[in-house]
Amino acid sequence: MSDGIGARVKRKEDKRFLLGKGKYTDDIRVENQSYGAFVRSPHAHARIKGIDASAALAMDGVIAVHTGPELKADGIGDIITGWAITSKDGEAMKIGAWSPLATEKVRYVGDSVAIVVAETQALARLAAEAVEVDYEELAPAVATGEAMNPGQPLVHDEIANNMCFDWEVGDEAKTDAGLAGAAHVTEIDLINNRLSPNAIEPRSAIAVYDDAEDHYTLYSTSQNPHVARLVLSAFYNVAPEHKLRVIAPDVGGGFGSKIYIYPEEITCLWASMKTGRSIRWTAERSESFMTDAHARDHVTTAKMGFDADGNIVGFKVDTIANIGAYASLFATATPTYLYGTLLSGQYAMPAIYCNVKAVYTNTVPVDAYRGAGRPEATYVVERIMEKAAREMNMDVAELRRKNFIREFPYQTEVLLAYDAGDFDAVLNMAQEAADVAGFPARQAEAASRGKMRGIGYSCFIEACGLAPSAAAGSLGSGVGLWESAEVRVNPVGTIEILTGAHSHGQGHETTFAQLAADRFGLPIDNVAIVHGDTDKVQFGMGTYGSRSGPVGMSAVMKALDKVEAKVKKIVAHSLEAAEDDIVIEGGEAKIAGTDKKMAWHEIGLAAYMAHNLPEGMEPGLKETSFFDPVNFSFPSGCFICEVEVDPETGVTQIVQFVAADDFGTIINPMIVEGQVHGGVTQGIGQALMEGVVYDDDGQLLTGSYMDYTMPRADDVPSYTIGHGCTPSPNNPLGLKGCGEAGAIGSPVAVINAIVDAIGTDVEMPATPSRVWAAIQSSAMPQ
Ligand code: MCN
């Protein structure tokens, strides 16, 4: 079937996007509308001594100003984190209270203090400027590596050393013994730079309170509307779950930053009830830089030991992870279970130990962003592998190959058990595509032009399909992240698939439709996908952790199984045949080997015309399923990047980038390649130009695109993409997620290539000035 699994079907949803007819939150008009604006802290750390809203309230058209103490008095709860982490001494993690509107202290520049509600957006913003907040400034804790030092200001007065937790995974004694007996030990110090997520559509919310019904509706740029409703109801006491509808319409990118319930949604809903007005809020870009959860921000030291043959004998990693001012939803899981558990990479390592100290600082919360923990793990493993190879005079690819895992399932030393992979095949594919054999000639030619040419690898593995209930439970979360689906065949034979996954750029309206098209031999235009509305879709867990494919689509497959079984019964009954003789293909069901058949619309009609159904069968053709995988699925890949560095200017040009991945079964290669392109581009951004900078006072210096550089088309080459395939045994499609791989594997491939070119280490972002300085300092006589 041309629209089925494996077909390069063009994205159905793109017509409305390309015509500018997407319907985003800020496009939606509601009755009784007003506008919200937030009074935000200009200080990184300060005590709130008083708030005077009289000047704002006196402005014509200002409806209300509401503050933190009022919100608390109404019983609105503090914002929670979703993953409980236990420190290595057995102590529970330390959580600093996060009120949606600050009450006693502000803890980062942009922390929200009050909401102003007014008749127009301009007036709301003007009035927010007129609210006088009396602050007593306090010294801030800002630098990741220093936040826990004695004498540092305390972000939360009651949390000593700003330490949220001190977590470990692996076996320290065994690892130390491995390192002590090693023939060679490589050491490295690394910084994983802090990033800002930068979805094209800024965060936005419209809160509508209907006092006649005592009912709330929230339109929101959410990646997971059901989870938002659950949390808003169960933890924040905004509204009972059955009186709250959350709609996430078209969402213009999230990359993780729209998983969380931020202060703005909670406050707008509550203020809508207080004022009796619908409240609309959309972030300005400068607000996004200040308040969208940031990402990465690790300071790491690592040691890897090898025997005389180059086999890894021990790997020890110490990381300080900045989680910002408050522990956001995935903030505690990201630097632990999504990081430390991936440190075996693609390699058989007999001993691993990782210690992570998570620290609070007076900066915006740090949470998941495309890859979430796995790019950081890959960065450590793959930088130290290349450094070790150079120190031991080994080929960087051969050292990797020597240590590859080749038997699956493979139980790592850090909790995870990998499902399937063929790392040799993917490395070979990448090397061939990158013409590695021809590299020395290209390098010599570049040198003749005064350019330094280098090649860098990244062989990575990730855990995706967040998160099997069994794993989530044992890894510290009370919530299993299964997914649901409902498949409805209408009486005319068209199909609707209701999914708890949410598409905010990943093309679900196409790929999910391909599943039904494949199963029944229908065109995908006969299949509609319904998602993103808690009133329409049964409960769902949303989209993050590249889970919609392995988990969400598997739920659809289960529901399709049930529909297919019922269809066979109906057709067998109608055609007076045995169920086992019924075959479904090409949009019809027939008795095998005969020309007796029913067209798909006849089957739909038969299901609803109860007079001709098998005895005892309920009418209708609609099935619901829930899928909870037994394990994560583990996409892997090999990226090879080739760069040319201009030693005069330090400018790096990426001249070739090969991405060979193993995503198991692929539903739509074009969409998968688009996902890889996007992820690799974000990774190149991290490697070469992106980086959030706070000064010593906790002021955000990179608060606009003048200072925070995003990659543009002319910064990236035309990518070469390859697909290996070892199907995952953990879901019915054999599929592994592809949404994050590009961002996970690419930063380190770029940096390894630059290090190869210039012969010395350089940190991310490898800006021209950093690269130039690195070249200069390595050229200086020692
Ligand atoms: N797919 C496929 N074959 C596979 C795997 C996936 O055809 N073997 C298809 C899926 O059907 C889906 C797409 O590829 O249409 C991505 O699937 P998957 O890897 O399961 O990822 P999710 O749909 O769960 O999306 C989440 C993932 C994450 S975690 C981030 S972050 C991210 C990403 O996807 N954010 C994105 N890609 C993004 N793309 C856009 N445009 N915008 C974002 O915010």
Provide structural commentary:
This protein has 782 residues and is an alpha+beta fold. It is globular, with a radius of gyration of 27 Å. Strand 22 and strand 23 (588-591) form a beta hairpin. The chain has a seven-stranded mixed beta sheet, with helices on both faces. It folds into three domains: 31-138 and 200-253 and 258-291, Aldehyde Oxidoreductase, domain 3 (Alpha-Beta Complex); 298-467 and 631-779, Aldehyde oxidase/xanthine dehydrogenase, molybdopterin binding domain (Aldehyde Oxidoreductase, domain 4), CATH 3.30.365.10; 483-627, Aldehyde oxidase/xanthine dehydrogenase, molybdopterin binding domain (Aldehyde Oxidoreductase, domain 4, 2-Layer Sandwich), CATH 3.30.365.10. Helices cover 28% and strands 23% of the residues. Helix 9 (374-391) packs parallel to helix 18 (741-758), helix 14 (508-520) packs parallel to helix 15 and helix 17 (669-688) crosses helix 18. Pterin cytosine dinucleotide binds at residues 253-256, 370, 504-508, 511, 543-549, 663-668, 671-672, 675, 678, 735-740.
Could you give a quick summary of the protein structure above?
The chain is α+β, with helices and mostly antiparallel strands and 782 residues long. 28% of the residues lie in helices and 23% in strands. The structure holds pterin cytosine dinucleotide.
